[in-house]
Specification:
Shape: globular
Helix content: 40-55%
Number of helices: 10
Strand order of the largest sheet: 1-2-5-3-4
CATH superfamily: Protein tyrosine phosphatase superfamily
Structural class: alpha/beta
Number of strands: 5
Number of domains: 1
Strand content: 5-15%
CATH class: Alpha Beta
Largest sheet: 5 strands, mixed
Distance between the termini: 26 Å
Order of helices and strands: EEHEHEHHEHHHHHH
CATH architecture: Alpha-Beta Complex
């Protein structure tokens, strides 16, 4: 493989964010691939360094979709990106901390896949709006993130990749890639004044990364909603946005 054929690095070498990854280069069932440099997923961005900011400027980052709750944003802040000419939107997937009522209660279980399925109810408006934004080419390059870049971010990534036909094994692998930097993310959570005091030395299953969790979520998504595309249609994503997603996210033509 020549240097011209070598794909870009998927994980951006940032100091203040450990899980900032490009969703480009993923194969689809019809033989296409996702575009590099268009859509990224990440953990929280409030600790970016000056060097990180320069990297994102070189990237041409236009849009940040923040999946954290308003409480998380107010408590931890947006970080230095708030001073950059970047379009920012807060789309909380979870109900506000403090027990705000929602249509469907969180599952009382350590079944992380079931919790991800619950996100589709409690975070319906946030997730559908995020999909609409990703389908808008003028928003790119775009990054979406939550606190750890694993759960809320992982669900949105799975929905987007599924809607454009990315191979299921690849969607699972995209989720599992967080494992490589999870120790850094957990160390940061342990230092956090709120999350840290609630984390035992051995984190419960929901703090781990298991490929089987995403496999199970995708099975539940099929079982309960008929798959990502069917869910997106029923949840209210416009037909125009869903039709444009492949144009925006995939290389070449079908």
């Amino acid at each position: 493989m020549t240097s011209a054929d070598t794909p870009p690095s998927r994980l951006l070498p940032l100091v203040g964010a450990f899980n900032f990854r490009d969703l480009g280069g993923y194969p689809t069932d019809d033989g296409r691939r996702t575009r590099w440099g268009r859509v990224f997923r990440s953990d929280t961005l409030q600790e970016l360094s000056a060097e990180d900011l320069e990297t994102l400027r070189q990237l041409g980052l236009r849009t940040v979709v923040d999946l954290r709750t308003a409480t998380e944003v107010e408590r931890d802040g947006r970080g230095p990106l708030q001073d950059e000419p970047i379009h920012y939107v807060n789309l909380s997937v979870l109900p506000e901390e403090g027990g705000e009522s929602v249509a469907a209660p969180a599952p009382d279980t350590d079944d992380v896949a079931a919790r991800y399925l619950w996100y589709l109810d409690t975070g319906r408006d946030a997730l559908t709006t995020a999909i609409e934004m990703v389908a808008d080419d003028s928003m790119h390059p775009l990054v979406f993130h939550c606190m750890a870049g694993k759960d809320r971010t992982g669900v949105l990534s799975a929905l987007l990749l599924s809607c454009v036909g990315v191979v299921r094994e690849t969607i699972v692998d995209d989720y599992a890639q967080t494992a490589a930097t999870l120790h850094l993310i957990i160390d940061r959570l342990r230092r956090h004044p709120v999350y840290g005091k609630n984390m035992p030395d051995d984190p419960p299953p929901r703090f781990g990364v298991d490929a089987g969790t995403m496999e199970r979520f995708l099975e539940l998504l099929d079982e309960h909603h008929g798959g990502a595309m069917a869910w997106a249609k029923s949840a209210g994503v416009s037909a125009a946005a869903l039709a444009n997603l492949p144009n925006v996210l995939l290389e070449g033509e079908a």
